[in-house]
Fold this protein.
Amino acid sequence: MSAVERQLDDLQAEIEEEVPADITISDVTYEGPELVVYTRDPKEFASDGDLVRRLASKLRKRITVRPDPDVLSHPREAEEQVRDIIPEEAGVTDLDFHADTGEVVIEAQKPGMVIGRHGSTLREITRAVGWTPEVVRTPPIESSTVSNVRNFLKQERDERRDILERIGRQIHREEMSDDEWVRITTLGCCREVGRASFIVSTPETRILVDCGDKPGAEGEVPYLQVPEALGAGANTIDAVVLTHAHLDHSALIPLLFKYGYDGPIYCTEPTRDLMGLLTLDYLDVAAKEGRNPPYGSEMVREAIKHCIPIEYGDVTDIAPDVKLTMHNAGHILGSAVSHFHIGDGLYNVAFSGDIHYDDTRLFNGAVNEFPRVETLVMESTYGGRNDYQTDQEDSERKLKEVINETYERDGKVVIPAFAVGRSQEIMLVLEEAMRKGDIPEMPVHLDGMIWEATAIHTTYPEYLRDDLRDRIFHEDANPFLAEQFNHIDGGEEERQDVADGDPCIVLSTSGMVTGGPIMSWLRHFGPDPNNRMVFVGYQAQGTLGRRIQNGWDEVPMSGDRGSRSGTLTLEMDVKTVDGFSGHADRQGLENFVRTMNPRPEKVLCVHGDESSVQDFSSALYHEFNMRTFAPKNLETFRFK
Amino acid sequence: MSAVERQLDDLQAEIEEEVPADITISDVTYEGPELVVYTRDPKEFASDGDLVRRLASKLRKRITVRPDPDVLSHPREAEEQVRDIIPEEAGVTDLDFHADTGEVVIEAQKPGMVIGRHGSTLREITRAVGWTPEVVRTPPIESSTVSNVRNFLKQERDERRDILERIGRQIHREEMSDDEWVRITTLGCCREVGRASFIVSTPETRILVDCGDKPGAEGEVPYLQVPEALGAGANTIDAVVLTHAHLDHSALIPLLFKYGYDGPIYCTEPTRDLMGLLTLDYLDVAAKEGRNPPYGSEMVREAIKHCIPIEYGDVTDIAPDVKLTMHNAGHILGSAVSHFHIGDGLYNVAFSGDIHYDDTRLFNGAVNEFPRVETLVMESTYGGRNDYQTDQEDSERKLKEVINETYERDGKVVIPAFAVGRSQEIMLVLEEAMRKGDIPEMPVHLDGMIWEATAIHTTYPEYLRDDLRDRIFHEDANPFLAEQFNHIDGGEEERQDVADGDPCIVLSTSGMVTGGPIMSWLRHFGPDPNNRMVFVGYQAQGTLGRRIQNGWDEVPMSGDRGSRSGTLTLEMDVKTVDGFSGHADRQGLENFVRTMNPRPEKVLCVHGDESSVQDFSSALYHEFNMRTFAPKNLETFRFK
């Protein structure tokens, strides 16, 4: 009998001790970090509303209770009863019964009404039919990404359960080493922006945190091939943790599966969906530009199949000696400050990932309260000594001015923006400005994946700022559905119409002008001095965006999408309106550390240009008297 | 055709261009770092005394010329001619003809007379017989180690040539990476003394520097199993460099071969022989103490078979992007400061290994002049703020006082000493003191491997201090052969006789009282308050030597060698006479850095107790304004 089997037997005995004598436990098993308890008496189990919580607290595990398949009622009968119990206003759009696990997945427009107060409706369902209900939200704006991911996971349900069981045993394996140490190895994004990747290692466990590409620097990927990364094989990694879906953090995650990795990816649910969207687009853009992407779309599916969703604030066992907790980072949908508790009180490391410290229209500011934290790995994108941005109110005023000026001279505004994050923030600004009459009503065209990304945002309102969530669901005043927003889905023809038409605003990807439909808008709008290009986000070194921002007006154009290649002379005005960045500025970064509770002993300043990380590292040292570092890529720091 | 074959073809063409038209080059091949040139006209080749030097300088390679086997004269005839050419006083003791390579190995008491002025006699031999002579010294004191190593290498000659050819191709392989970086990973001896081990890595190459055990801390070995060490397989290491033969640097070298390593070990010739001696003894001691050593003696033979001897000052290609140069370190016989030139002018790292800065009786002081060096990895054994030793003259006076006092009260002196290094130093002191009448003539008993280690010293006088070398060979006044020195080769019976006899001095291993015959001397001498134990070398934390030095007088004794076990009460006086250490003291360490030319930008302070490395690191920073570090084990520093 293996150590894990002994452990499960012990757990079953403990559970049997805790539950009333009339409840039979037929099996106990691990699926990923969760302990799944099978019972022959699901109805009785559900009648004690506090039982699962008590068990979870006693065993210090995340617990799911499922009916033994033998005792299930027939889906046809069950469906009728379930629909009877759920209030009509919940807007159930789909019911899906899985006899293998006794789960019924309920898709509804208002999941809260399916759950009921403190889960009371869910328990009522189980008491009535025995099945274990699981609730997902029907996307308020149809999202092909969300429905593709859900359908794919449904179709791969059996294999996924096998994967989760294997991972579960891996997580709960016995610790082998008497040694104690905690290390971080830097594989990318040190003294540079892009290709974020780190290894957190202990004698037991090796965790990869992020695995991105470097925008504007083709082929520059994290140092995955060195021995301390994947040099001894992709499965020398126990787990991958993804802080958020931007490609400079996620693009190479699917590559890990091509290299043979078959372990878990821990991230929030929106990060999983956005990663799917962005990595597939990454492949698409590469193909269109005649580049050979490092992996195919089947690897994106593998990655999604191996995702284990984490909710903000949940403490999750991801290895025998590592617990992961993710917290809102305020940067993009699903972005997470990731906290690792290592050993039994041995050490704590927090990775900020990319953060926004102050509240924005979309998100609450980043969380910086932890039970304990000794070392912080801190983004420093705007860590330079002069990287102060105007506050958002000023930025909005400036943006509106630019739009008004351009409108007055009959010009058009094009805003390159990341599909995910800044686009939605700008949409909210524009919607309000038009509603309040600060700028004229005019069409706002959304090109690239912005529309789809917006749909994903509305699927996960729990991850948005409180009052925005309320507007989307409670007041039926979803700002993203305002009529001036037009989804460009007619290709070049539609773009030509827009270019030939009246003043308007275009939001288009890619955000750093490294490819995608923005290249087409450059051609359409670039030659007219009445038009304006407005940068609202960070432009990395080496990107065309950074060059245009710095004054380049001769832009080499490749002949993609059938257009002629050659050089394009930009006549339109170029403006930068900062303050909309998804990143904290220097002040925000300092505030994050200043108000962090508890204050860390050591800070590794990463994810910034060389001068930014060095400025920021030196400032933190002088202001807060902590040990600070500006690591290079390929270094290893030992903390214990 | 492989890249290496193309390279060899090009080299052959270059050589053919340089040599006179009447000399035919039949083949060119690599053996380890050397370029071997086979010629059908060895006699003509040898007639131009400067030709090999010109070729070496043109091709920037170490060059060996050998006759094509087809053109060789018969050994019987050749032997007669060779003996005729070599002056009788050279004392030839053996001639060994190897028809496969056309080499004749000449063992002689005075190798210099076989070589002749600037190699004239060697060239005369080749001009006469065509064979390529190679000269080795007949050990002036018979050494079983030297003769075993030589016989073993003779017996394994064919396999060794295969190994060298394989390594040669490996060294001269084409560089694959466009990337540039230089890193050092610490695997041991950081904030501790013992288990020295580092990895120097570039995108092309990974080199292991030293691989020792930790005296007094059983089972504590370098972190070889982490991915960046051997985690991806022992042959992810390209080369091993051994700075010197002490077990805290060499003990686990044979283990690498058990793990499957089959690459080269670069070290000086005396280090190779001493490593053989010390690691075999390490296995012997382990067996006697009932421990299970991590490898068997056949792995020591593998290690010796893979040694590539390096002479001080020779620049040697050890990888496509790494050149190694070893320099005298003044610490023990063959000990080397090891300098790595990486890339074509990219970066230079020097490892001090263990050093003695000032001249001692045995050795010249450590070399600290280099063409370039940016980073120094520096031993800090006596780096603590108070680690100043009296100078050697004072130390010698003190030692003589202790001996005289003990003699006067009819007591005996026992000195625990490393077999290699300190023993010979003390022997030189005692021999002179008796010769000059500073202490009474009395027997000096040498126990453990001291006699054998001394024999090895006399085999390699080139590695000893100039005037000592002269005494050994030119004046026939070899101090190591003085009649008071007695080799204890009669075991316990002889020890009992010594214990029962008149005043005397015993030099015995192990130097830190962690096992070996010193345990027996403790039992014999310990209970008599008239006796003295004198420590003359560093005692590592956790060793019995350190404890006794600190005042322990109840010594637990195991019952090895048939004696009863239990506790031994030490009544004899314990003295420490420092100043004989093979290590520089704090002053010497500082002087090494102060006078180093050029001065390095960065210093990693290693190989010292935690407080010593931190004191020393901080002192270097404040005195010389350099970047200094006191690394932990398992860290990786990147320099480029």
